[in-house]
Design goal:
It is built from 6 helices and 7 strands. By secondary structure, it is an alpha/beta fold. The strands form 2 sheets. It has a 5-stranded mixed sheet, sandwiched between helices. Strands 6-7 form a two-stranded antiparallel sheet. The N and C termini lie far apart (41 Å).
Amino acid sequence: MIKLFVLSNCLGCEKAEKFLKKNAVRYERVNLSFAKLQEIDLVLMNKLAPGGILDIVNWNSQILKDVGEDVAPIFKNMNIKELYAFLIENPEVLSYPIALDYDSGYDKKPLSLVVGFNDSAYNYFLDAEADTEFKDKYYVNVSSSYIFNACCFYDEVKNDGPNILINNFKKDEQQ
C-alpha cells in the first residue's frame, strides 16, 4: 500500500500524483493541508530514513525560519514523542511529496520511502523489474541536497519570460 502525503498547491505533489495515476499505481492520497498526520506514519518514515525522521525535514521552511535560530539542536534535544507531536501540529515543516510504501498487514512493515519527486525514483513503484537507478533502495530523498524555500523542488521554479530559473543551490555550496 502506498500512501502519498501531499500539501495543497505543491507542484511536486501534483507531478507525483499525475505520475501515479498515469501509470495506474494504486495509492492513498493524504492531503496534510486538511488531514492530520498520524503518528504511525511518522514511525514508519522514521524507520526507513537513515537519519531518522529529521532526514525528511525541510530545514528552510517558513515555520523554522520564524523561530529565528538554528532549530537542529532543538529537534535533537526533543524526545521522539515530542518531535512527532511537533510534526503532527506542523506538517508543513516536512519536504514534499512523501511516498510511503508499506505492508498493509497487521504489523504495517515499512517497505520504501521516497521524499520529493522525479520519474526515476517513482519508477520504483511500477514493478520490481522497473529500470531505475533506485530499484534496490528502500529510501530515496530526491531533494536532500537542495535548499528550498517552499515544500519541494518544483515550487522553486520561477518562470521569468523565456528564462526558467531554478533554485538548484546545493547545501554543500551554501557557505
